Every structure is written in C-alpha cells, then in structure tokens.
Amino acid sequence: MFDSLPVDPEVLKHWTWADFEPYYQDLVQRNITSGQITNFLSDWTRISEAVEETYSRLHVAMTKNTADKEAEELFHTFLDNVFPPSEEAEQKLKSKLLDLGTEPPRFEIPLMRMRTDAEIFREENLPLQVREHKLSTEYDKIIGAQTVQWEGKEVTIVQLRPIFQKTDRSMRENAWRLAMDRQLTDRGAIGDLWQQFMEIRLQQAANAGFSDYRSFRWKQYHRFDYTPHDCLRFHEAIERAVVPAAMRVAERRKRLLGMESLRPWDMDVDPLGRPPLAPFREVSELKVRVASMFYNLDETLGRYFDTMVREDLLDLDNRKNKAPGGYCTEFAVAKRPFIFMNAVGIHDDVQTLLHESGHGFHVFERSHLPFHQQHSVGMEFSEVASMGMELLASPYLSEEKGGFYSLADAARALVEHLEHGIMFWPYMAAVDAFQHWVYVHPEESSLPSNCDAQWKMLSERFMPWVDWTGLEQEHITGWQRKLHIHVVPFYYVEYGIAQLGAVQVWRNSLKDEAAAVKAYRDSLALGGTVALPSLFEAAGARFAFDSDMLGAAVSLMEQKLEKLRQ
C-alpha cells in the first residue's frame, strides 16, 4: 500500500485528509510484534514525511508572497482539513509504539519525546493550534506589507537597513524614524493579535491540565535538560558576565564616533567612519562566493550548498510582500533543506546565509537516519549547527580564500560579528525574560500597555547603553517588532545557549580546524538519537550556561577582538 504514496509535492499539495487517512488507518489497525517494528516505523516515516513536506512547501509558498491569495488558501485549507486529524493520528501511533513496550535501536530519546507528547496531547487543542497558525500568518502579512517612500521609491523596512550603516548621521536618523513611524501605525493591529494569541495559548495550557502556559510550553519543546529557573539564572549570569563586556563595546563605539551618547541609529554604523561593507550587488554573487567559502572549509559542505543552489532550494532576495526574517525548513520526503531570507546587500546577509546553511547541513547530515522520529533535534543544538557555521566559516571571508573582502575588511567583518555576538546575549536575555514574565503573569501581560512597560524595564536592565531620550513610544514597543515573541513563544533562549556551544566549537577550530569541522559534522549526523548534553559533547563542547562558561566565552571573544583591531 505504501508503495503507492506519491512523492511529487505538486500532487501532495492538493491532497485532503481523505487521501492521507487510509495510510494512517492501516498503521493504527496493524497488528505488530517486536519483530515487525522496523517495517512499522518505515511506513510511519513515509506518511509522516509526506504530511510534513506538504505543510512545509505550502508554508514556503505563502511566505514567499504574503499577498498570494491562492497560496494562503491552500495553506489554510491544509491547516483546517489535514493538520488536526493528522496530529490526532500521529498521537495514536505514538501511543501504539509506547504500548508495545519495546525500544528500537537509537530510540531512547524519540521515545522520551513521544511519552511527553502523549502526556500533553488534547484533541480539543487541535483547532486552537490551527487558529494560532492563522494568527501567525496575519502577523507575517502585517510585517510583510510595511513599506515606506525613500528617495522617491517604495521600499520595505528591511531595505532601509543599509542606510543605518551610512556615515551620514542625519540620513541614518531620518531612515530610522521613517521606519519606526511606519511600524507604529500597526501598533494597534499587532496589539489586537497579541490578545488573541494570549487567549489561545492560555486555553491550550488549561486544556492540557497545566496551571500556566510556560510549564505546558516546556513540555511541548521537550526541554528535558534544563528548567525555567535555569533560564532565570542564565539571565542573571548574562547581567554579571556579559553586560559589562557589552558596555565596553558600546563605550568604544561612542568614543570612536565622538558622541556623548549612542542613539538607536548609531548602533550599526562603522565606528571608524568607514563606508558600509558591501559584499555583493546581486544574490547570484552571494551564492557563488558563499559556495566557495564552504568548499574551502570542507568539500562535503561545499557540495551540500551546491545541491541547494542547483535544486532551487534558496529564496534569498528581499521584496515587497515577502514575509519577514529568515529560516531554514526541511522538505522531509526529498530529504532537502530550503533556505528563505531577505538579502539587501549588507554583511548581515552573508552571516544569515552562513547561519541558515548550517541548518541546511544538519538536514543533509542526519538524512541517513532511517526513521523520521530520529530526526527531531532540540533547537538548543540545532542553533549550534547554524551559529557554529557562522564562526567556522569566518576565516574564509576574504577574497583570497573564496569570500568577499580584502584582508582588512574580512578582519573588520569578524570584529563586527564578535561584537554583535557579545551584544546579542543581553538582548536575548531581555527577550527571554520578557516571555517568562508574560506567561507567569498572563492577566497583566494580556494588555499590550503592560507589555510596553515591562519591555522598557528589561531593555534598560540588559541594554543600558542606548539613549532613547524623546523616543518613548519607539522604545517601549520593541517587543512588538520581535517576531519570535509573537509566533514562536519561548523560542529564543536556545540562541543564547547555542551561541555558547558555537563559541566552543570555534575555539576548537582555532587550534585544529579539520578536527573541529569533523566533530561538528559528526554531531549533526546524530540527529535526535542522543540527549542534548551528548550532542554538545560530540561537537567538542560542554552543555552549560553559567557565569563561568559565559565568562570564558566572552574572554575568548574579547581577546580575539583585541588582536583583530590592531
């Protein structure tokens, strides 16, 4: 029966639940013994991957053009018609395997995840999850439609980013204020969405028997190796070990710029007054040079990237009505990644493509694992794959090594990246602490005005170097502009944890690059078959995020910065 399952996405995207259902029914009704588990898991993998790839491709089509009504309709039809019954069927299969009481090889962690899923699954949450997905698309549409007039042209907010790097301060300020004014016009609409998000999420937690959404979300994310309290301690450790280093970066910037204070539009300009790095003019050049960097780092990684280019698995340029941000998703049947981003010709675009390619390499490396259930990896390590690649590839940024820049500009690019890395931890702490407050105090946080006040307090606690005088509304609405807070709640601390892992991988590469890259690839190949600490260990890192670990990472970054600045 499963031999008849289509693999053509153009066929699958029009399938309804009536088409998928017989395959699930066969598996649910199948009598299996321990000797038949391999067959059962193989067939389960095929139908799960068909559903997952259909979702991914429909989502990709919609984010490519948020104004495409047909793409939106197909995606919403899938959410309404296929998503709820497929989730219910998946849960029945998980229970069936758990009831068998047999552990297939390399299935300890997948079974832990299944037990947790069984514990929190509630059929009444399925329509709520559909509504939540639809609200997320509404958020994307709002952000994707934000354009302004700049020098006689309609441009997206993202397309203003290169202006923030210009040495003309008045131009930077004008562009920044123009962007903020446009974003503030959607303040009410985003606030309305926020209240709907909160209602839906709190109801899901209550339906599953949890007193708060944070506890429910912890289970959803399969966070077996750390607690909410550990995250609060992480915030405190960042305040002690990283904020002083970030202040040193900011003070140096202020001194070099000759300014009394740093305004929001002063944070991206080169402090030495050099023109912005301009790594490429066309996306085609970005692809060619990044491919060359990967080949010089590791031939297999270069081949993986070439496959993505050849098979049209990259959508990199920014344009009107394209969803915001960047992501890498997986086409599970094809065993291929797909990378989406909004490039506008600045160095951040190079870093974003290196980052998302790290996720893509993860897809390639774990594709040898036979069962779909072995592929799921905690984001705390998935982000090591991406953030680690940003650092591993950094020696190849110069033209003479396949990249974009002169030796001086390559050093400058790494300085910017390391400085941004130090500044990132405090921002991450603010975003994560904000979400802990939101879901521990849901009655208070359901009001956007209270969220404004909380964001202001956290911003001042973790990022005191920015002068927001006279910019009260722009300051307090920073939380509205952070996509993760709205569409993937509690997904952000992973970046902070992963950056610690990535810095350790990079540290190893400074001593022996080939060995570090091998450990990196070997760890990606494990997929989700071992626990989080073991994944870090395989990559040559230690899973920890205390003051000592942060202090060691920041010390290495500052030492490297001192050498690069000479």
TrEMBL record:
Binds 1 zinc ion. Keywords: Hydrolase, Metal-binding, Metalloprotease, Protease, Zinc. One of its GO terms (biological process) is proteolysis. GO terms for molecular function: metal ion binding; metalloendopeptidase activity. Residues 165-550 form the Peptidase M3A/M3B catalytic domain. It comes from the Bacteria. Its cofactor is Zn(2+). The keyword Transferase does not apply. The keyword Protease applies. InterPro entries: Pept_M3A_M3B_dom, Pept_M3B_oligopep-rel. Belongs to the peptidase M3 family. This is M3 family oligoendopeptidase. It comes from Desulfomonile tiedjei.
